[in-house]
Amino acid sequence: MTTRRTILAGISLAPAFPLLTRAAWASGTVTAEDKLRTSRLVYLTPIKSNGDESRCKAEIWFAYDAGNVYVVTPPDAWRAQAVRQGLARARIWVGDFGVWTEADGAFRDAPEYMATAAIETDAAVHAGILESMGSKYAETGWSRWGPRFQEGLVDGSRVMIRYTLDA
Fold first, then answer.
1. Alpha-carbon dihedral of residues 32, 36, 38, 39, nearest 10 degrees?
2. What predicted TM-score, i.e. pTM, was given to this entire model?
3. Domains plus CATH for the chain?
């Protein structure tokens, strides 16, 4: 049962959480898989056909399920455009370092994955991933963004991208 005391304890510890998780990662007690399950953000960039990273990068909400990272984005966002243009390879860093342009590259020291991207069209997958994201981001704006994601996936104003992580 969630009590006021539980909520207040969580709020009081929230400012320390990024420091605690970074310290645990540095000490080796947190695995990359743990980070995928607990991080609020991933940072990603498409890989160009010549193998270089795109200059387009972003920190983004995500869900992790069975070796896949899922994001929801407008269809005209560079992430979706890259996939449609055949740039299916991407590099993903896991962690929370704030806005990437202000992170001074700190995300580059986070766990890193290479992945293959594809647009996910299965409505059942959409529903499951949105449910997962709803639990994960309940206190950080999901009441505003959840309906937009859900409606957008139906009306085409959003797409879901599945990044399958390399083994």
1. 100
2. 0.79
3. 1-30 (no CATH), 31-165 (2.30.110.10)
